[in-house]
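G., the chain you wanted modeled:
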Amino acid sequence: MDAFFLSLAAAIEGSSLQAGALWALRSIPGFPPIIQTVHILGIAAVMGSAVMINLRILGLALPSQEISEMNQRLSPWLWWALASNLVSGGFFLFARPYRYFDNPVFLWKLGFLLPAIVLSLMLWRTIRIQSARYSQSRVPLHSKLMALLCLGLWLMTAMAGRWIAYAEYLFYPA
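Predicted structure as tokens:
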């Protein structure tokens, strides 16, 4: 698996994607902190919407709110913020591909992120299709288990993302 990610980093190294990302990060005044701020705000929107939806499914938050209504209101925030994080994170990934693809914590982040997205999409679709079932007070056990797993995956994604910078000190000491 490491060989795959290292070959991906090698493919990005020297490409026009890397040149464009490096140009933007080096040439546009204030761009790195702006794009980091966009990324952090995106993380807040993803976490806020995902946590609220999953806690509601688990019956731990806002019991007066209908699950289907909450899902309909908060899911766009989740998906748009996730898209903005893909773009904002892409600048840093393309600028220094080896920094990320050679970092095991980044790979852990991907390992948590991809199933979190899939589970969130499955929950969103299930709630949308079976909205009458979810408007009742009883939520199916399998949905509660999915929500619990999804919540854990989102939390682990955020924690792994935060640890990416610190892992450099652990794995590559100066």
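The chain has a mean pLDDT of 90.

Shout if anything looks off.
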